[in-house]
Amino acid sequence: MTRLQIAAGNWKMNKTFEDAMQLSRALANATRDENVLTIMATPSIYLKMIVDQVLHVPGLEVAAQNCHEKESGAYTGEISAPMLESIGVKYVIIGHSERREYFAESNEVLARKVDIALANNLIPIFCCGESLEIRKSGKHLSYVANQLKESLYHLSAEELSKVIVAYEPIWAIGTGETASPEQAQEMHEYLRNALAEQYSEDIANGISILYGGSVKPANAQIIFSQKDVDGGLVGGASLKAEDFVQIINAF
Length: 251
What we know:
Pathway: Carbohydrate degradation; glycolysis; D-glyceraldehyde 3-phosphate from glycerone phosphate: step 1/1; Carbohydrate biosynthesis; gluconeogenesis. By secondary structure, the chain is an alpha/beta fold.
């Protein structure tokens, strides 16, 4: 089964309004591989403007970086899945390592966020990954598989087939440690096999699993060439149009 190849750029808390519009325009006008789905996860304050800007640009979509687990209510400063759907957003990042660490989002909370996203026609980009401590303990494979189990395994096969998984080796981001393409492949293969065991090989083989470990123009091609790596969730390198386009075209 041919899986979707995806280059998703997570802008995090970066870019002023003018800078954001300039970056999205540059990506819209760039020569990009038409077989690669390109996703921009922009700060929430810019979502509507950028959705409108790229509405008719083939292969270019917009994601929110987070959503709340409830439909609505007294949650000052939060953004709901129905709000995102109402402005044309199609994707939402759920469970990014920074949300897990800084905002103490548990697997149980993330399961509810996945549910609310799917209920509102949003495609979750579900993040999982382990710290340096877990990696050195040798329990990294089972630890990350458990994140899938506790946040995704309640879904039906049909629901799961809509989810994009993104593996973040937290231990290799800003630590001085380096993740090799082989280490990326090992985890991606393990997660795909875990999904196949829980659901089926057909379902697992249809799910795109992205790599989120400091993807750059210099290493994108070798990372994306790994059998079970279907693209990247890109951080800093997605903030420069030229760098991100090189990553998009690295497939």
